[in-house]
Amino acid sequence: MSAQPLLETTGLSIAFGGIAALDRVDLAVGARELVSVIGPNGAGKTTLFNCICGLYRPDAGVTRFQDEPLPRRPDAVARRGIARTFQNIELFRMSTVLDNVMLGRHLHIKTSFADAALGTPRWKRDEVRHRRRVEEILDFLDLQATRRRRVGDLPMGQQRLVEIARALATEPILLLLDEPSSGMTAEEKADLVFRIKDIREEWGITVVLVEHDLKIVMGISDWIAVLDHGVKIAQGTPDVIQRDPAVITAYLGETPA
Amino acid sequence: MLPRSADVALGSRASPRTARIHLLSVSSDLLERYQDDLYLVKGATGWLTVAALLVGLVALPFFLPKVGLGYLLFIAILMAANVIVAVGLNMLVGFTGLISLGHAGFVAIGAYASGLLAAKFGLPWYAAWIGAAVITAGFGFLVGLPALRLTGPYLAIATLGFGIAVYQVLVNWTALSGGRTGLPVQQLSFGIAGLTATQQLYYVAAGAAVVLSWVGYNLARSHVGRALAAIRDSDIAAEVTGVNLLWYKTLAFAISAAYAGIAGAIIAQALRHLEPQSFTFLESITYFAMIVIGGLGTVSGAIIGAVILTLLPHYLSGLRQWLPIFYGAAIILMMMVEPRGIYGRWVRIKMYFKAWPL
Ligand SMILES: Nc1ncnc2c1ncn2[C@@H]1O[C@H](COP(=O)(O)OP(=O)(O)OP(=O)(O)O)[C@@H](O)[C@H]1O
Ligand SMILES: [Mg+2]
Fold this sequence. Notes:
The structure holds 2 protein chains of 2 kinds.
Chain A: E1 7-16, E2 19-29, E3 34-38, H1 45-52, E4 60-65, E5 68-69, H2 74-80, E6 82-84, H3 97-103, H4 113-118, H5 121-140, H6 156-169, E7 174-178, H7 186-201, E8 206-210, H8 214-220, E9 223-228, E10 231-236, H9 238-243, H10 245-252
Parallel strand pairs in A: 3-8, 3-9, 6-7, 7-8
Antiparallel strand pairs in A: 1-2, 1-4, 4-5, 9-10
Helix pairs in contact in A: 3-6, 5-6
Chain B: H1 6-13, H2 16-26, H3 43-66, H4 72-95, H5 103-121, H6 125-144, H7 152-172, H8 174-177, E1 183-184, H9 197-221, H10 223-233, H11 235-240, H12 245-271, E2 273-274, H13 281-294, H14 299-315, H15 323-337, H16 341-355
Antiparallel strand pairs in B: 1-2
Helix pairs in contact in B: 4-9, 4-10, 4-12, 4-13, 4-14, 5-6, 5-7, 5-12, 6-12, 9-10, 9-12, 10-12, 13-14, 13-15, 13-16, 14-16
The structure holds adenosine-5'-triphosphate (ATP) and magnesium ion (MG).
């Protein structure tokens, strides 16, 4: 990380009812890196994502993206090029896979309200253009066969992929994945690993991954940050992290008093 | 234009298992091009249905007197107004998931505004109606602002309060509304030669209902409809995907209020005499019942619900005092048995028969 980092949090802190969920977390993610954030349950991983994308307002600290502070509203953060998935799958359950992923195009849609209301040719052209992009993404994630099904009816593994598809449809610079493999079969997990690699290598998207499956984490991360009780207790390459005594203690559940 | 057919390409690539699922879910509509997905009306049957509906609407004023039902034309005008309210309300409740139990308030504002704009400023009918729509949209926007913080029962109470407040203002601000004695509404000239005043109003009202329903269908399938449905199903996911909640929630309120305003203008012309009693809480509940019974979240459902609940009180006029109880019971029953309403049930029956031979 010699150059200016893409995403940088400095002293990020937030507490809920006196309990620190994040405690002065510093994190600097370089462009095109694939970084994992791990830690035991309740360590603050999801909270970190929520702070970055504007769902939570941190008590202290700043988050900079592309060398500028991030806006506060989540939709404005999305416009800056940050997309994410959710640990507790947040899909539009009543809509089809296609409509879910099409929503990812929302911030690129240029046609006006009036064009949409009247269904003008301009609206149609724009819609088809976005549809093409969405079909490419569905292709990439092998979701074509499900495009007309209601997401609520899909198995968990595919729902997770639809979330990734929706995030990719926003053409993000930075993608935050919150436990994308949970609820997936072993086979789906293996596929997922290749896809995350592709997202970084072929699409050039920076990825921050929160993941409980340490086999996945150790296999694909450039480096790893470890959170415990809201504190970043370690950071380094997979090899270093695996041997770090503080990390081992945290995972064995022996919390320092 | 597009060389590759999306769904056919799929058939060759997908595994047998996914291919079968695909057949079940798409069955007859193997679509050739992405553009084809964007047509509102699909296939010969679709166009025939639409054509038959339009011809029926045009012929109605001439057909009804022939079978001795001429008085129903008045009901048809009210039906057009109800369809407009229901399509607009459904945009708010069915699509966006925001509740309004005070829509009669918007209808009232539209009715009085159109009447006063025409009387005080001598505006032609269309200008008065558009003015009424703009004014109600403004009120919708204002009522929508608290919706950014309030959800569920709290929003229900807030909108209920709005409806009651409008009623109270109309009762007490006699200079504006004529109070309880009412406000006479001058007959507007629609300038359609050779037709009675009622027939002219019918055509304008039915035309407005058709156009506004069409706009409703267009919005529903566009990025606007997707954003609203996204807010309904997961507002945080909608937000982080780039949907501006402030803008879209207030927009939903403004659109649905504008629809109610146009309906109010029609009702003002139909009644020709406005009094606050025409816009009570019961009216708000009736509108709500229309979309729940017809089907939340689909334009067709709203239309069906409005048609049914316009005809029902007419044919059950002897049981008028029981209607509120009936509506209440129907809302609860529908929520429990068929949350997608009559239209949703029909779609499922259709799907069943489509999939049946497989
Ligand atoms: N909205 C909230 N209100 C109150 N407490 C919260 C809220 N969000 C997070 N917390 C608390 O902050 C702490 C960190 O939670 P967080 O969800 O970030 O953990 P996590 O690392 O994602 O855990 P998991 O592995 O279980 O997903 C927990 O103690 C949690 O209870
Ligand atoms: Mg979490």
